């Protein structure tokens, strides 16, 4: 385990862009609201300047242009902050030991969301800590998934102790369709949070069998500004379960009536890219609104559009460790985690390391990996095996294209691979619950943490490379020499999986 603390300045980004140590500097969805307020002032300015209906129509076009450029395209779904302490855990035993210690020290609030909460030694130890906290007056809330965690005797224990418990989608098809909550989150007193791929279950147990070695899995504990973002995601999920899908919480609040801490959205000393771009648009609006027409004005708008895009995309160099929390849901953050992967891989210059138990990404992510390999980036995939037959036979169908592009592939066999981690160019990493398959990227509720320039990135890189080296690698010549019936099984399994996922995701999986 490693701890570090970055500079206390906050850095925010709508996208994980230019990860050769670049982070753009903005947060438009939650917080300062620069884009929205500027939009209102711009609209009123344009309206008052137009002297006739035609000019008014053109002024509205200007406002729509500004909103399209600054509101929709660049609206942030997560933010990067510095000044966070990060601890990386490579096993459930270490994670739950630290979590129980935090729960025993809690004074106000404990919130946990998990896919699996198992009634084994680990689960009972954590449950006992939660009960102790509730009995001393701490508010304890737990979200479990209706399929991942069937009814347990522990539920009655929680009820008797005053622990609040809600179940996400109790049936296979429920109010939230086929989606599951696959997140593994904990927030304690708004001071500490954890996120990763580790369920609340014994590291050595899998479907009633004992594994030869502990599960290969990871999680991080966070302390600092990013904890608030984890808390917001939990509060939104808690409300959704009770009331159905709800809009995002208002800016600057953790839950209805609960404001964020004073420093949560404090502006960075150097200002915000979006704010600068919005000011530029407003200046242009005030100058152009009375005479917006076709001809020269249209050409001017074209130049303005290109200038805006260049301005908004121009990132600042990140000089301190930064952290972002990325939650995927089916409301407003449908592609957040996938886009984070795409941005990082798209900016890779030296190395991409991916480790994932269920590797069945859509076309966009596959294309990003192929393009990275083709431009000379060393791409290595560590893939889990021997859990689901359809994946064991279907995933190898993708190997031909990947191997042909120069991607190196290894299949982990030492024990169960459950970690969902990646490292890009040794300065960007992600740890979380999201698999690289249709269920995680398109359907389920997931949560990942992004790290930029943190010391833990090197520790995670070493772990991935170590596991890759001790795993059998796919030899291209032997792969291409597979018997015809194995090739047929690979194609059939892949086709079945793709058709089933398209049905479950209503065409969202590509």
UniProtKB/TrEMBL annotation:
<feature type="compositionally biased region" description="Low complexity">
    <location>
        <begin position="35"/>
        <end position="56"/>
    </location>
</feature>
<dbReference type="InterPro" id="IPR025202">
    <property type="entry name" value="PLD-like_dom"/>
</dbReference>
<dbReference type="InterPro" id="IPR001736">
    <property type="entry name" value="PLipase_D/transphosphatidylase"/>
</dbReference>
<feature type="active site">
    <location>
        <position position="182"/>
    </location>
</feature>
<keyword id="KW-0594">Phospholipid biosynthesis</keyword>
<keyword id="KW-1208">Phospholipid metabolism</keyword>
<dbReference type="GO" id="GO:0008808">
    <property type="term" value="F:cardiolipin synthase activity"/>
</dbReference>
<feature type="active site">
    <location>
        <position position="420"/>
    </location>
</feature>
<comment type="similarity">
    <text>Belongs to the phospholipase D family. Cardiolipin synthase subfamily. ClsB sub-subfamily.</text>
</comment>
<keyword id="KW-0472">Membrane</keyword>
<dbReference type="Pfam" id="PF13091">
    <property type="entry name" value="PLDc_2"/>
</dbReference>
<feature type="active site">
    <location>
        <position position="418"/>
    </location>
</feature>
<feature type="active site">
    <location>
        <position position="189"/>
    </location>
</feature>
<feature type="domain" description="PLD phosphodiesterase">
    <location>
        <begin position="177"/>
        <end position="204"/>
    </location>
</feature>
<feature type="domain" description="PLD phosphodiesterase">
    <location>
        <begin position="413"/>
        <end position="440"/>
    </location>
</feature>
<feature type="region of interest" description="Disordered">
    <location>
        <begin position="1"/>
        <end position="58"/>
    </location>
</feature>
<feature type="compositionally biased region" description="Polar residues">
    <location>
        <begin position="21"/>
        <end position="30"/>
    </location>
</feature>
<keyword id="KW-0444">Lipid biosynthesis</keyword>
<dbReference type="GO" id="GO:0032049">
    <property type="term" value="P:cardiolipin biosynthetic process"/>
</dbReference>
<feature type="active site">
    <location>
        <position position="425"/>
    </location>
</feature>
<keyword id="KW-0443">Lipid metabolism</keyword>
<protein>
    <recommendedName>
        <fullName>Cardiolipin synthase B</fullName>
        <ecNumber>2.7.8.-</ecNumber>
    </recommendedName>
</protein>
<dbReference type="InterPro" id="IPR030872">
    <property type="entry name" value="Cardiolipin_synth_ClsB"/>
</dbReference>
<dbReference type="GO" id="GO:0005886">
    <property type="term" value="C:plasma membrane"/>
</dbReference>
<feature type="active site">
    <location>
        <position position="184"/>
    </location>
</feature>
<keyword id="KW-1003">Cell membrane</keyword>
<comment type="function">
    <text>Catalyzes the phosphatidyl group transfer from one phosphatidylglycerol molecule to another to form cardiolipin (CL) (diphosphatidylglycerol) and glycerol.</text>
</comment>
<keyword id="KW-0808">Transferase</keyword>
């Amino acid at each position: 385990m490693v701890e570090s603390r970055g500079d206390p300045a906050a850095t925010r980004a709508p996208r994980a862009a230019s990860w050769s140590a670049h982070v753009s500097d903005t947060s438009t969805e939650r917080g300062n609201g620069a884009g929205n307020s500027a939009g209102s002032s711009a609209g009123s300015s344009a309206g008052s300047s137009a002297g006739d209906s035609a000019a008014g129509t053109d002024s509205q076009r200007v406002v729509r242009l500004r909103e399209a450029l600054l509101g929709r395209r660049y609206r942030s779904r997560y933010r990067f902050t510095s000044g966070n302490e990060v601890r990386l855990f490579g096993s459930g035993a270490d994670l739950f030991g630290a979590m129980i210690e935090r729960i025993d020290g809690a004074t106000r609030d404990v919130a946990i969301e998990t896919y699996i909460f198992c009634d084994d030694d680990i689960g009972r130890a954590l449950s006992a800590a939660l009960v102790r906290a509730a009995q001393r007056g701490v508010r304890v809330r737990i979200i479990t998934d209706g399929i991942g965690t069937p009814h347990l005797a522990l539920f009655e224990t929680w009820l008797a102790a005053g622990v609040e418990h809600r179940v996400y989608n109790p049936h296979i098809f429920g109010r939230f369709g086929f989606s599951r909550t696959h997140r593994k989150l904990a927030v304690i007193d708004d001071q500490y949070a954890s996120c990763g791929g580790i369920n609340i279950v014994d590291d050595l147990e899998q479907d009633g069998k004992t594994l030869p070695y502990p599960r290969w899995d990871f999680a991080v504990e966070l302390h600092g500004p990013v904890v608030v973002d984890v808390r917001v995601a939990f509060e939104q999920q808690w409300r959704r379960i009770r009331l159905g899908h709800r809009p995002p919480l208002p800016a600057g609040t953790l839950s209805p009536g609960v404001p964020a801490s004073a420093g949560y959205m404090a502006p960075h000393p150097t200002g915000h890219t979006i704010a600068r771009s919005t000011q530029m648009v407003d200046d242009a609006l005030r100058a152009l609104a009375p005479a917006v027409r076709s001809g020269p004005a249209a050409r001017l708008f074209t130049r303005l559009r290109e200038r805006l895009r260049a301005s908004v995309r121009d990132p600042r160099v990140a000089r301190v460790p930064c952290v972002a929390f990325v939650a995927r849901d089916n409301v407003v953050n449908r592609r957040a985690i996938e886009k984070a992967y795409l941005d990082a891989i798209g900016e890779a210059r030296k190395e991409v390391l991916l480790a994932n138990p269920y590797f069945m990404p859509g076309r966009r992510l596959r294309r990003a990996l192929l393009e990275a390999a083709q431009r000379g980036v060393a791409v290595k995939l560590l893939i889990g095996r021997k859990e689901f037959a359809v994946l064991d036979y279907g995933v190898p169908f993708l190997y031909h294209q990947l191997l042909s592009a120069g991607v190196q592939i290894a299949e982990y066999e030492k024990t169960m691979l459950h970690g969902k981690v990646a490292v890009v160019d040794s300065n960007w990493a992600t740890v979380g619950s999201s698999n690289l398959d249709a269920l995680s990227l398109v359907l389920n509720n997931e949560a990942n943490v992004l790290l930029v320039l943190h010391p833990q990135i090197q520790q995670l890189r070493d772990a991935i490379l170590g596991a890759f080296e001790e795993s059998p690698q796919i030899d291209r010549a032997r792969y291409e020499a597979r018997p015809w019936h194995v090739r047929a099984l690979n194609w059939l399994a892949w086709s079945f999986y793709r058709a089933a996922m398209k049905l479950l995701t209503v065409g969202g999986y590509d």
